[in-house]
């Protein structure tokens, strides 16, 4: 490492990463903000490209004033030189490189650059803060691979980032709070939302009224979404689930059915809804690949952190959805606490109490835990998945092959199912199909420690050990100033 101010690498420029970046930079730490997207904001503050000429991008968001504050703060630090933003940098691993005795652990962040991701660079840092967010839980059903079927978050990303919709008539289905902004956003964009299909029994919300009352702003937000659904005359089907997507070559209709108290489909309640698009989602899963590769402790599916957002690995902090799905307010609070802590620890002091952010974190974590217990996929969703339904799209593994691995070949865990069927061995390395394979096999979904967080060209992987400060930069290109 070169002499100078301590350097913190923040991976992820969503709400948590931006809050951490601003908190650390304000306290005298040089921050390198590394993100795969071409612009800061993450999935939550995804915005249309300037060339699309969106006149009111704020109409696609709530908490827009918070984004404007974050954007102004980032711009000020970029101008002052206290923050360097590296967009279009796709981090594939973080390694502990070590330094001189007493100088701290030291880290090297390896990232593929540009849309083609053919060349890698190395960014040095004294500490790392992981704000890598989460991704959607995908559960298969007959017909889910038809064109026109997208995830709920995918439909929202299309609208926010491209000002496009997946179809003129759509069904939004699954379980979880995300369905509300997706349905209302599509309806406001002119889509005829034929139904909002939610597997949750509304009576569970009533039973959790006490816990939900701890976050009145969230209750008010939910009420606003409900009012918009009424205004757009969107039919609401609670305690229902999608059984099948149908169509020749592309989606033409979906079949839904009511769920009984035991979570099973009630015979005779099936109905067919013609549509061109189906946006389906069942919540989110924290993105923990980089944390697992570094050796951070993972509890269940969440990266474990202490009150300062420190992981079990010295010099590594984590904030936002990677420590547990909880929404933007929780991500902002955790990011702020993590940034303050990282700055103080790098300076060799204890962080000042972030009392307000800590209170917000406690309140929103409690609220998120309540929602997690309520919004879950139907207990017996796997019963509706036919043997010929593709589960792992990368390797074209069907549900029948997964079941045969368990009942016929004796597989008792995800790894054995993977070895026997190749489910999870494709491009996504199981990130998409793993929850489905676990559900079909009756196995617990456990963290899979992966050395690499994304596919890497072999040439770049081979050259990553060269300590030249910018591993794999394209010929004729100089490394960004964040490299040593």
From TrEMBL:
<feature type="region of interest" description="Disordered">
    <location>
        <begin position="463"/>
        <end position="484"/>
    </location>
</feature>
<dbReference type="Pfam" id="PF04324">
    <property type="entry name" value="Fer2_BFD"/>
</dbReference>
<dbReference type="InterPro" id="IPR023753">
    <property type="entry name" value="FAD/NAD-binding_dom"/>
</dbReference>
<dbReference type="InterPro" id="IPR017224">
    <property type="entry name" value="Opine_Oxase_asu/HCN_bsu"/>
</dbReference>
<feature type="domain" description="FAD/NAD(P)-binding">
    <location>
        <begin position="7"/>
        <end position="332"/>
    </location>
</feature>
<protein>
    <submittedName>
        <fullName>FAD-binding protein</fullName>
    </submittedName>
</protein>
<dbReference type="InterPro" id="IPR036188">
    <property type="entry name" value="FAD/NAD-bd_sf"/>
</dbReference>
<feature type="domain" description="BFD-like [2Fe-2S]-binding">
    <location>
        <begin position="390"/>
        <end position="439"/>
    </location>
</feature>
<keyword id="KW-0560">Oxidoreductase</keyword>
<dbReference type="InterPro" id="IPR041854">
    <property type="entry name" value="BFD-like_2Fe2S-bd_dom_sf"/>
</dbReference>
<dbReference type="GO" id="GO:0016491">
    <property type="term" value="F:oxidoreductase activity"/>
</dbReference>
<dbReference type="InterPro" id="IPR051691">
    <property type="entry name" value="Metab_Enz_Cyan_OpOx_G3PDH"/>
</dbReference>
<dbReference type="InterPro" id="IPR007419">
    <property type="entry name" value="BFD-like_2Fe2S-bd_dom"/>
</dbReference>
<dbReference type="Pfam" id="PF07992">
    <property type="entry name" value="Pyr_redox_2"/>
</dbReference>
């Amino acid at each position: 490492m070169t002499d100078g101010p301590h350097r913190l690498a923040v991976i992820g420029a969503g709400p948590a990463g931006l809050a951490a970046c601003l908190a650390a930079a304000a306290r005298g730490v040089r921050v390198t903000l590394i993100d795969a997207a071409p612009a800061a904001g993450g999935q939550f503050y995804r915005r249309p490209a300037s060339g699309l000429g969106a006149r009111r991008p704020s109409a696609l968001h709530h908490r827009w004033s918070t984004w404007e504050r974050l954007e102004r703060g980032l711009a000020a630090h970029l101008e002052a030189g206290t923050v360097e933003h590296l967009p279009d940098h796709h981090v594939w691993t973080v390694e502990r490189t070590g330094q001189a005795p007493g100088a701290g652990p030291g880290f090297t962040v390896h990232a593929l650059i540009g849309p083609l991701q053919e060349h890698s660079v190395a960014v040095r840092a004294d500490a790392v803060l992981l704000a890598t967010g989460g991704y959607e839980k995908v559960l298969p059903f007959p017909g889910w691979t038809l064109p026109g079927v997208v995830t709920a978050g995918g439909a929202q990303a299309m609208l926010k980032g491209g000002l496009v919709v997946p179809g003129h008539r759509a069904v939004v289905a699954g379980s979880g709070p995300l369905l509300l902004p997706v349905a209302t956003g599509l309806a406001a964009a002119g889509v005829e939302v034929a139904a909002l299909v939610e597997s949750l029994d509304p009576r569970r919300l009533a039973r959790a009224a006490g816990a939900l009352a701890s976050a009145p702003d969230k209750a008010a937000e939910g009420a606003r979404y409900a009012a918009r659904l009424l205004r757009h005359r969107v039919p609401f089907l609670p305690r229902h689930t999608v059984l099948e997507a149908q169509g020749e070559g592309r989606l033409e209709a979906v079949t839904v059915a009511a769920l009984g108290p035991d979570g099973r489909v009630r015979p005779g309640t099936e109905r067919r809804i013609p549509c061109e698009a189906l946006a389906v989602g069942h919540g989110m899963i924290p993105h923990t690949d980089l944390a697992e590769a570094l050796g951070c402790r993972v509890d269940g599916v969440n990266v474990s952190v202490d009150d300062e957002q420190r992981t079990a690995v010295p010099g590594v902090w984590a904030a936002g959805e990677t420590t547990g799905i909880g929404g933007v307010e929780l991500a902002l609070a955790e990011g702020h606490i993590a940034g303050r802590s990282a700055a103080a620890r790098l300076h060799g002091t204890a962080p000042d109490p972030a009392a307000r952010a800590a209170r917000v974190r406690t309140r929103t974590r409690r609220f998120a835990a309540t929602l997690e217990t309520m919004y879950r996929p139907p207990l017996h969703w796997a019963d509706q998945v036919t043997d010929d339904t593709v589960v792992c799209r990368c390797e074209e593994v069907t549900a029948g092959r997964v079941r045969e691995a368990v009942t016929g070949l004796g597989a008792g865990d995800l790894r054995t199912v993977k070895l026997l069927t190749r489910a999870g061995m494709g491009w996504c390395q199981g990130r998409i199909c793993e929850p489905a394979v676990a559900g079909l096999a009756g196995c617990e979904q456990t963290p899979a420690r992966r050395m690499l967080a994304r596919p890497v060209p072999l040439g770049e992987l081979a050259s990553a050990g060269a300590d030249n400060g910018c591993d794999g930069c394209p010929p004729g290109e100089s490394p960004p100033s964040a490299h040593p």
